[in-house]
Amino acid sequence: MTTQLAVGHGLLVRVLVVLFLLPVGSLSYSSQIHGIHGHKLPFRRVLLGHDTEKYAVIFDAGSTGSRVHVFRFDESLNLLPIGDEFELFASTKPGLSSYAADPPAAATSLKPLLEEAEDVVPTELRPDTPVRLGATAGLRLLQGDAAERILEAVRNLLKNESTLKYRDDWVSILDGNQEGTYLWVTINYLLDTLGKKYSETICTIDLGGGSVQMAYAISDENAENAPMPSTNETYVEEKTFNKTNYNLYVHSYLNYGSKAGRAEIFKTSRNSTNPCILEGYDGTYTYGGVVYKASAPPTGTNMKRCRVLARKALKINAPCKYKKCTFNGIWNGGGGDGQKNVYMSSSFYWTAREAGILESDAVGGIIRPLDYMEAAKLVCATKFEDIKSNFPNTEDDDIPYLCMDLVYQYTLLVDGFDVHPRKKVTVVNKVNYKNSELEAAWPLGCAIDVMSSSATNRSIFDE
After folding, report:
1. What burial letters (b/e) apply to 248-276, b meaning 16+ CB within 10 Å?
2. Known catalytic residues?
3. 334: annotated binding-site residue?
């Protein structure tokens, strides 16, 4: 009897080894078993231990470059490590918009990133791993059908040369509200505030190049009083995270990002000298195909006059049809406890770093809006030729506009979003998460959204 058991055990081991070595495609329907939620899983996948992990691949196609993020989740969409980090990140320059005259070359520029992403996803999981590309400011500015031709070339790349799960509508230009929503999810996910009452969640303000997005949870009462803007978009999105319902105020303020804001300030000076430009600089500024005169007046840079122009550019005094507006007559969401904890990212971080508000190696920090104005007093009094020696972290392209950027960002926060000058806020580039650092950016929120929309996943987005 003992001999028979030993022979039987040996036979079973040999069968398992053969099945393990077979390619996934050779396993028939009958050789699948059911997962713990009743979903059929390839037998080999269970043997390899991949039945409880999911991956998502997100491309961020920005104006200056393309980046890929790969995230790994468990069944409940908790992040799992990939090697020593909680994401794979790789990037390349220039951005897709640089290939307006050659769309196939735009797609080709993504191939090294795609290969790197696929390398970390187990072969058995690639057909179930969504790949999503979101393009932002760069493609939005292209003329004619250039952007769509680039997107179509990328779709062909993912369709024909990738083994990942792909849909045509997963390659698109993100609208500002999507960016705002995804960033809100990212920050609150990393800080473990999703599922908590709305007063404990984080308000996010993301200052991109072309637009600025604000997102925060508002009360049921404020949501009921939300107006419908003229673009037929709603100000409020209803979301459920971890069985908690949220009314999320999300608005993208187009043409008020850091680079677009400069153009708006130049418009107020009507192609004349501008008091926001550093003394000693005489040049031009180009944005959206329009060239603006960028030179300081004979009397030099003047911070107070610059602030007057910044308020005009933001249209602070525009008529407000609602109980309260931010700027340019836009509803502010009603305010409330969801705005208590403010996290600011993108250009808010980089300008703070350039001006010495943050240390050069800091990934974030607690500051006050007033710090931008205090820094502006020093910067605006500095001549163009002396900026690099006094503020060595300033990027060369930003030097003439550092005074303008600081004044604009202070004005945007205090006069536009009604943040008290002395309120403590957090400015971030990365967020500490389980002894690791993840980017304070929209791709993680997008990955969670894509993963949670699949019927095979237990979702934290229960809509």
Report:
1. bbbbbbeebbbbbbbbbbbeebeeeebbb
2. 179
3. no
